[in-house]
Amino acid sequence: MTSDTPARRRARVFSRRRSAPSRARRRLGAAVRMIAALALAGGVYTAFTPGAFAEDNVQLSAAAQEGKALFDNSCISCHGRDGQGVEERGPSLIGVGSASVEFQVSTGRMPMTRQEAQAEQKTPQFDETQTKQLAQYIQELGGGPELPEGELVEDLKTNPDALARGGELFRINCTSCHGFGGGGGALSSGKFAPSLHDATQEQIYAAMLTGPQNMPVFGDNQLTPDEKREIITYITVQLQDDRDPGGLFNLGRYGPSTEGMAIFLVGIVLLVFTSLWIAGKS
Fold it and tell me: Is 43 exposed, middle or buried (0-12, 13-18, 19+ CB in 10 A)?
């Protein structure tokens, strides 16, 4: 058996001292490679992710420049420079698209006078041209959903099949909040689904595209553009033009059920008073 001489012990210590720097260099090299890989991945993501940030030097069209002037005068205090948002005052508008701006501004929901549970519809502060200019500025700033050009449903109004399909889609997707007659309804925490009686075709389409307030977004994978148009056809023809669906007295425009309940209650009261009158006479 070989004895453990002092020379061999010194050799082992020297070998350990040589191996320690080698392990440290390997660890340092692995850390450098990891940092380089993360930096490369971040650079690729930043370069190829569209609409993530607004460009400071973006070239705006003439309409968008007019919209920027309106934005800087009326919206920048809440939504910040270049629509980046202000914490606890207003969200970022990067990526919301022109459809969202057209809905919010044309219905008077924006600009808001104060923070509430829900922005309520009021008289718009901008005319149609100014609204489109604001929308174009936000669209060019960060992209997002846009309204289709041209008339939305003019060719569907005389199509009974489109009207029937629109009614079915409306009952499946919209009545739980807006009611069967489109009169709207209360939600939780002081929020509500608004009435559809005065909504324009563009506002309805924009609301389905962008999902304002508590409304879900109905993207083209949930409702195709043709299905959206059929729903708008049903709303404009059946609920807006025909003001009394299923009844005569326009009781909330919920259909014949409310009128039947009203007739029942009034009839019962009349019968009770008639019975008391007859009993008193006899």
Answer: exposed
**Residues of each annotated binding site for heme c:** 75, 78-79, 174, 177-178
Query: Higher-confidence residue: 197 or 259?
Result: 197
Residue numbers in the known binding site are 75, 78-79, 174, 177-178
Alpha helices in 179-255 (DSSP H): 201-210, 225-234
Beta-strand pair 192-193/185-186: antiparallel
Phi, psi of 49 (to 5 degrees): -90, 115
Residue 181 domain boundaries: 154-242
Same structural domain, 134 and 174: no
pTM of the model: 0.68
Domain total for the chain? Answer: 2
Of 142, 177, 196, the one marking the end of a domain is 142
